[in-house]
Write a structure and sequence with these properties.
Helix content: 25-40%
Shape: globular
Order of helices and strands: EHEHHHEEHHEHHEHHEEEHEEEHEH
Number of helices: 13
Number of strands: 13
Strand order of the largest sheet: 6-5-13-9-10-11-12
Strand content: 15-25%
Largest sheet: 7 strands, mixed
Length: about 400
């Protein structure tokens, strides 16, 4: 089967991009969007092979014909959503997204891989490898600084550490195995002198001080207020290297509902009645007005948390162009004054070499993992090249 959206952590980037594409250059989210009619995260039917005796004999032609016919039936979305709603209401489970969407306490939705990593049921990265990883990041950071570029590492938080009490009790989560990567990453980055943003600490500093949760009930990423707080922290980290970078300004008010990226998980459930939302913040970035600001360019190698951040920095006009290479090659996107657009993946190296700001962003549970290793390999290959002759 050809897959439209395969359920891995990368699906989060695609759901964010879909939501951001609807926002354009307006404030983060201001209007309620109707639930899209097409099913989300589903498989496309296989390509029908040319009619031949071999295809008929193997049954491949007949199976492809049946699958395409079923997919094109007008009532299919309604039938799928009705069945999904019955299963969700009756058992609290779903076969959508390969069964990876988990309903926690108080109806909070989680992606299972984050629960497994947080509770130590799986270990995506060996904590002992992080000092060496941080040392490589520091060398890359120094190389960018020597070129007149500013580098920052953004460590994004996960919903399981913001709402640990809402993780289902069915997952064993012993204290001695829980959350082992984050403290190791903090120690390694601090020891190596990396310019980094601790996304979890940023949110924790506001726990109990704001009237909203900083993660939505129906999504896996930080919500608009979490994004704004993280945006402040990113600009603070940049300002420590370049004092000319201004502070951001923005306002927050009560939002109408969780929509767009705030429903990246519940949208994949394909239900007839989407789950209820928590009280939702709506953030409006206030563009910088000082002359000469908003001229910076930013290039990020990132997972899905950076997409909302880059949009926020662009809407504040701190940067006039932000290019995010999500998972290096997955749907690279550019945020600019008139909106957002997909860009070719093969422009990454050139953008890394020419942008004013370079960001490596990874989620806590992937610190030192494949994404970071791929970023380092790309930059280290450029570092190894002999200097150009004058």
């Amino acid at each position: 089967m050809r897959t439209l959206l395969t359920w891995t952590p990368r699906i989060l980037a695609l759901t964010v991009l879909a939501g951001l594409g609807l926002m354009g250059a307006s404030p983060l989210i201001k209007t309620r969007l109707p639930e899209p009619a097409p099913l989300q995260g589903m498989q496309l039917p296989p390509e029908r092979p040319p009619l031949s005796l071999a295809a008929l004999w193997s049954g491949e032609y007949q199976k492809a014909t049946e699958a395409n016919a079923a997919a094109s039936l007008p009532p299919r979305p309604q039938i799928v959503r009705a069945y999904n709603q019955w299963q969700w209401n009756t058992f609290g489970t779903s076969y959508m997204a390969s069964g990876s969407i988990i309903r926690g306490r108080k109806g909070a939705l989680f992606e299972e891989s984050y629960i497994l990593a947080h509770c130590g049921i799986i270990t995506p990265v060996d904590p002992a490898s992080l000092p060496a990883f941080a040392a490589r990041v520091r060398r890359v950071q120094d190389w960018f600084a020597a070129r007149g570029q500013t580098f920052v590492y953004v460590l994004a938080p996960v919903k399981t550490t913001w709402l640990p009490d809402l993780v289902p009790a069915s997952y064993p989560c012993p204290t001695n195995k829980r959350d082992v990567l984050y403290p190791a990453a903090r120690s390694a980055f601090d020891a190596a002198g990396v310019h980094w943003v601790d996304g979890r600490a940023v949110l924790e500093a506001h726990r109990g001080k704001v009237e909203y949760e900083l993660f939505p009930r129906n999504g896996i990423h930080w919500n608009q207020l979490g994004v704004a707080l993280a945006g402040d922290a990113v600009t603070d980290a940049l300002r420590r290297q370049d004092p000319s970078i201004p502070k951001l300004t923005w306002s927050v008010a009560a939002g109408p509902d969780e929509i767009g990226p705030d429903r990246d998980l519940s949208a994949l459930l394909n239900l007839r009645r989407p789950p209820r939302a928590w009280k939702t913040p709506a953030v409006t970035p206030q563009p910088l007005a000082a002359p000469g600001e908003g001229k910076l360019t930013l290039t990020a190698v990132n997972d899905s948390f950076m997409d909302q951040l880059s949009l926020f920095l662009n809407q504040n006009e701190l940067v006039h162009r932000a290019r995010n290479y999500g998972y290096v090659t997955l749907a690279p996107i550019e945020y600019h004054k008139s909106g957002a657009a997909l860009i070719p993946a093969d422009g990454l190296t050139q953008d890394l070499l020419t942008s004013d700001i370079v960001v490596l962003e990874t989620v806590e549970t992937a610190t030192g993992g494949e994404l970071g290793q791929r970023f380092l390999a790309i930059v280290e290959a450029e570092m190894a090249k002999p200097p150009a002759r004058p």
